[in-house]
Write a structure and sequence with these properties.
By secondary structure, the protein is an alpha+beta fold. It is built from four helices and ten strands. The strands form two sheets. It has a seven-stranded mixed sheet with strand order 1-2-3-4-5-6-7, with helices on one face. It is flat, with a radius of gyration of 20 Å.
Length: 236
C-alpha cells in the first residue's frame, strides 16, 4: 500500500491536501488508485468532509461489506481480497479487476463547499462502470447536504430543470419525457442523484443507467448561478 501526501490547497476556505493511495502491485493483483482531497483540520467541517469522502470510497471498494473496512487502505485491501477470492473460485473465467477514484474540490465560497469524485470500477462483464459523485457541505453548520438542500424551492427548480432538459434534448413540452428514448422511472422527470457545484454554476449529473442507457454515457446540464439564483438556498 502506498500513500503519498501532496501540497496543501487553500482557496480562502478549507485547507486541504491531496492524498494518494494505491494497491499492491503484482501480476495477480487488481489495479487500484485513489487520489482524494483531505481536510487538514480534523475537527468540525474538516472531519465531516473527510468522513463523507471515506464513506464513499468504502462503499465503492468494499462492495460486499464482507471485510468491514473502516478506512481507505482497508477498503483497497478488501477489493484486492475480493478479486483473489474470485480468482480462486473461477480461475479460467476471471479477468482483471480495476478501480480508481479521482477527487477534487470543485467549488467553495463562504457558505458552501463541493467535492467531486470521479470513479471507475471494473469487476468483470462487458465493461466497467464510470460514475461521478458530488458531495456538498454547509460550511456554517459543518454538515453534509442532501442534494435538494441546495435549493430553497426544490419543486420549483425541478420544474425549471425539466423545461431546460426538454429543450436541450429536443423533447416537446407536452410529450412524455421518455418519448425520445430516455429511461426515467414511471416516465416522469426527476432530478439526478448527483447535483454539484463548480465555478461555472450548478451541475445536474445523471450517471449511466440513471436516466439513459450505458451507451448514452452521462447526461450533464449546467446552470449559471445568476440564472437560478431565486431557487438557491444560499447566496452565491
Amino acid at each position: 500500500m502506498l500513500l503519498v501526501a501532496f501540497g496543501c490547497v487553500s482557496e480562502s476556505g478549507l485547507d486541504m491536501q491531496t492524498r494518494e493511495y494505491t494497491g499492491e502491485i503484482c501480476d495477480s493483483c487488481p489495479v487500484v488508485r485513489v487520489s482524494v482531497p483531505e481536510a487538514i483540520n480534523q475537527r468540525g467541517l474538516g472531519r465531516t468532509v473527510n468522513t463523507a469522502i471515506r464513506e464513499e470510497i468504502l462503499e465503492l471498494l468494499d462492495y460486499d461489506e464482507a471485510h468491514e473496512a473502516v478506512d481507505i487502505p482497508g477498503a483497497i485491501a478488501a477489493f484486492q481480497q475480493g478479486f483473489q477470492k474470485m480468482q480462486r473460485e473461477f480461475p479460467e473465467e476471471l479477468t482483471g479487476w480495476e478501480a480508481s477514484v479521482e477527487g477534487v474540490k470543485s467549488y467553495e465560497d463562504k457558505d458552501v463547499l463541493c467535492i467531486r469524485l470521479d470513479t471507475y470500477i471494473f469487476t468483470g462483464g462487458a465493461h466497467g462502470y464510470p460514475s461521478t459523485r458530488y458531495l456538498n457541505f454547509d460550511k456554517g453548520k459543518g454538515k453534509e447536504l442532501d442534494a435538494l438542500e441546495l435549493f430553497s424551492k426544490p419543486d420549483g427548480f425541478a420544474s425549471y430543470a425539466e423545461a431546460a432538459f426538454r429543450k436541450h434534448y429536443n423533447i416537446e413540452p407536452d410529450a412524455p419525457i421518455n418519448s425520445t428514448g430516455f429511461m426515467f422511472e414511471d416516465n416522469r422527470f426527476i432530478l439526478p442523484e448527483n447535483i454539484g457545484l463548480a465555478a461555472e454554476g450548478l451541475i445536474l449529473h445523471y450517471n449511466p443507467y440513471e436516466a439513459a442507457s450505458y451507451a448514452d454515457g452521462a447526461l450533464i446540464l449546467e446552470f449559471p448561478f445568476s440564472e437560478i439564483r431565486d431557487y438557491l438556498a444560499w447566496a452565491e
